[in-house]
Amino acid sequence: MAEPGTEPNEIALRAAEVAADVTEAEYPQDRQRKVAAFIKAVGSGARVAGRGTQAAWRRVDAARRRAGSGGGWLATQVSAMAPRLRVRDQAALRKQFGDRPPEEIADALIEGAARASAAAGGVAGMWAALPVLTAYPAEIAAETLVLVGIEIKLIAELHEAYGRPASGSFAERMGAYVASWAHRRGVYMIPGGVVVAAGSPLARLLRRRLAARAGRSAFSLGPLLTGAAAGAILNSRETRRLGRDIRRDLRRGAIPGA
């Protein structure tokens, strides 16, 4: 799925950590603080000269240009991020939620992810409202990666909650959940299977989805606090819709032998 010359970098690795932390954070202020710190660091790294960050961002920008589009560059980062996401398996979910049935666990997972997505959009909008020269492309990339990480983690944990995880190693399962995110379907409902090689129909779909998601992230960078409100609403709505779509497929018992 990675494009030639677009090696993963520390931004994707940090995004994986933030996406997991903000999803599992108990209090709104914790979610906002974690996302704000990440977006601020990325935005500052794109702007500040003389501390080693400018050269790093030049390499990132060059990789993005070589990828041919924002969607291609983001796809590379998502590929690096997904296997590093912290995912609660069925045993961990049962330990956390007790004897609650899968439907109730799924409700809690979807709402938790929606709140996390809202925090990401709201924080990006707040940061853009500050009286500084804001590096919008870098902040959009940061918000988009966190949002996609939140949603891929949600997909993985919904499959675990219903006892229907994808097959293979952890890295292979996370690759399947990336494909699930692109198709907006449960893993075993993906047409044509999971083939995310560069140039494949699924890889092209992933790039289009990511480019569109980044475009929606730009709403959070609107004027003053209207961007924060728009980003929070759009993000939570989109994540909630995705979670419900995946749950619908899992309810159908789409996995053979389930």
Explain how this protein is built:
The chain contains ten helices and no strands. Helix 1 (10-24) packs across helix 4 (70-81), helix 2 (28-47) crosses helix 7 and helix 3 (53-67) packs across helix 4. It is 70% helix and 0% strand. The chain is mostly helical and 258 residues long. It has helices at 10-24, 28-47, 53-67, 70-81, 90-97, 102-128, 136-161, 170-183, 201-217, 226-251. The two termini are 30 Å apart. The longest helix is centred in the middle third of the chain and has 27 residues, at 102-128. The chain has one domain (10-251).
Compose a concise summary of this entry.
The chain is mainly alpha-helical. 70% of the residues lie in helices and 0% in strands.
Report how far apart the termini are.
Answer: 30 Å
Helix content: 55-70%
What is the number of beta strands? 0
Number of helices: 10
**Class from helix and strand fractions:** mainly alpha
Low-confidence runs (pLDDT<50, min 5 residues)? 1-8, 47-57, 59-69, 129-136, 254-258
- Mean of residue pLDDT values: 76
- Radius of gyration equals 18 Å
Largest sheet: none
How many individual domains? Answer: 1
Shape: globular
| H/E element sequence | HHHHHHHHHH
User: β content, as a range?
Assistant: under 5%
